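Figure caption, in words: inputs first, then the predicted bound structure.
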Amino acid sequence: MHPPAGSDPRPRAPGDWDVDAFRAAGHELIDWAARYFEGIEGRPVLARVRPGEIRRSLPATPPEQPEAWKELLADLEQRIEPGVTHWNHPGFMAYFGITGSAPGILGELASAVFNTNGMLWRTNPASTELEQVVLGWLLEMCDLPRDWFGQIVDLGSTSAVLALAAAREACPLLEAREDGLSLHGTPRLRLYTSVEAHSSVEKAAILLGLGRAGVRKIEVDDRFRMRPEALATAIEEDREEGWTPFAVCATIGTTSTTSVDPVDALAAICRREKLWLHVDAAYAGNAAVAPEFRHHFRGCSEADSYYFNPHKWLFVPIDCSVFFTRHPDTLRRAFQLIPDYLKTSETDAINFMDYGFQLGRRFRSIKLWWVIRAFGVDGIRERIRHACTLAQAFAARVDAEPRLERMAPAEFSVVCFRAVWPDLGPDETDAANEELLERINRSGEVFLSPTRVRGAFTLRLAIGNLRTDQRHVDRVWELLQAGIDG
Ligand SMILES: Cc1ncc(COP(=O)(O)O)c(C=O)c1O
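Bound structure (pyridoxal-5'-phosphate present):
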C-alpha cells in the first residue's frame, strides 16, 4: 500500500538520503559537469600521472561512517579528475573519438534513476519496447532492412560473440549448444576474416571454443580490403583439408585504417558456400546515417548479422552497441534457457534474456532515444559530415606536404600518416615517428594514437568528438610541423 501523500516527514530517495538532499546534490553534480565542460580545454587531454599515483592517493580501506556528499564531490574533482584521460576533450583524436553528449549523459542519469533490469518484458516493459522502437529508427536512419531483429548490448565485443554463436548454431553438422565442441568427430569449424579485422573477432572465436586456429585471416588488397578471391581459395583449401567453414566476418571501417571490405562480393561467396555473413561496422556503421556514405555498405542488407556502436560515433555515451540479425530464431536457439524462477505468462512479448548469454539488461535505449531526438537525424548527419570534412581537409594537407606521407585512404574521419626524413632508413623512420607522436601528445592539447600500416609506424588522427573543430585540427598541424622541425 502507498502511504498517504505527505505522511512521511522525510521522504526517502535512493542512498537513504531524503529527497531534498538528493535534489541538492544532483544540482551540484550537474553544476560540476557544466564546469567540467566549460573548462575542459584547459585540461591536459592525456592524463599526466604515473602508474599507481591515483591508487596511492586514495584510502586503501573504506570509511566505516558515512561521509558527506561535499567530500565525495570534492574528491572526484581533486583526486579523480587529474587521473582521467579526457575522451570528451575536443583535442582527443586517438583510437576512435567518442562523445558523451548532453542528451546522452542525461539519458544515462534517467536510466540510473529507474535502475531496472530489463531481462524479461515484464521486468520493464518500457525498456523492451523502447529498445525495439529505437532500433527500428536506427534501421530506418541507416537504410538497413527494416525487418531485422535488434537488441542493444554493452560493447562490440559482445556483438561479435552473439554473431558467431548464432553462426555456430546455424551450422547443420553440429550440436554445439547441447554437445559442446569436444565430442569425438565434432567438425573443426573455420571462420574467415581479414588480416585487418578487429581483435574482438578472434577473441570471440577463443571464447566460443573455435580457438585461434579456427580463424583464418584473409589477405587484403592495396586499400586494406579483404580479397574475395583469396577468401574463395581459402574456403576451398580448407574443405579439402577437412575443415568446416561456417562464417565470414567482414568489416566496414577497420580499426587501423577504416578500410571497407567488399561486402557485396563476400556476400555472394557466403551465399554460394552457405556460410553465415557477419558484418562488423563498429565505428563506420554510424556514417550510414548520411546517404553519401551508403555506397560503402553495399551488400550489407544480405548480412546474417550486423552491428555498430552508437557509443563510437553517434554521440551516445559508452556503452551502447546495436546488434542486428535476420535470424532471431537461430540466436534464440543458441541461448534460450529459462529456469523456473524466470518463467512468465506473456507469450506474445520479447524477453531479451533469450537472445544472448547475459541475463541482466540496462535501460540503455533512453540515452539513444534522447540523442536521436535532441539532435534530429539531420543534426546527426551534419555532425558526421563535419567530422569527415575536417579529416578530409587534414588528409589533403598531408598529401600536399612533402615531409609527410599518407599511409592509407581516408574513407571516413580517420587519417593515417607519418613523417618522412630523406636520410633516415625504415627503423630510424619508425623511431622518429614514435618520438614525434610522443612529442605531440606531451603538449596536452591533443591526443593521437599509433598503429602500424604495412609494418610501418603510423600516426592516426581520428575525429569523432562532437566538440572537435577546425582550430583543434589546425593545432595538430602546428604541433606536427614543430615536431618535424625538431
Ligand atoms: C572494427 C571494430 N570492431 C570491434 C571493436 C570493439 O568494440 P568494443 O570496444 O565496443 O568492444 C572495435 C573497437 O574499436 C572496432 O574498431
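The first strand starts at residue 12 and ends at 13.
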